[in-house]
Specification:
The chain has 78 residues and is mainly β. It has strands at residues 2-8, 19-23, 32-38, 43-53, 68-74. The chain has a 5-stranded antiparallel β-sheet, with no helix packed on it.
C-alpha cells in the first residue's frame, strides 16, 4: 500500500492544504492526476499527487482510498 498527499481541485478556501489518501495503484507518481472521495459526502474530485510514500503519515489512523488514476495525464514528465 502506498500513501499519497494530494492537492484537491476544489474552488474553496478550505482546500489550501495537502490531504492524505491510501493508494493501491502501482502506476501512481508525483504529478499524477487522480480521483479521490472528498469531504463527509465523499464527492469525487480531481486531485494532483504532491507527495508519495510507502509509509502512512504519522497521526493518521484511517484513510480514504484513491478511486482512480488518469493514465493520460501527468504534471511532471520523466
Amino acid at each position: 500500500m502506498k500513501y499519497v498527499s494530494v492537492i484537491v481541485d476544489n474552488n474553496t478556501n478550505a482546500t489550501d492544504e495537502l490531504y492524505s489518501y491510501a493508494c493501491e495503484f502501482d502506476d501512481i507518481k508525483v504529478g499524477s492526476k487522480i480521483r479521490v472521495p472528498f469531504s463527509v459526502h465523499n464527492r469525487e474530485l480531481d486531485a494532483y499527487v504532491a507527495e508519495l510514500s510507502d509509509e502512512a503519515p504519522k497521526g493518521v489512523k484511517r484513510f480514504k482510498k484513491v478511486v482512480s488514476v488518469d493514465p493520460d495525464f501527468s504534471l511532471i514528465t520523466d
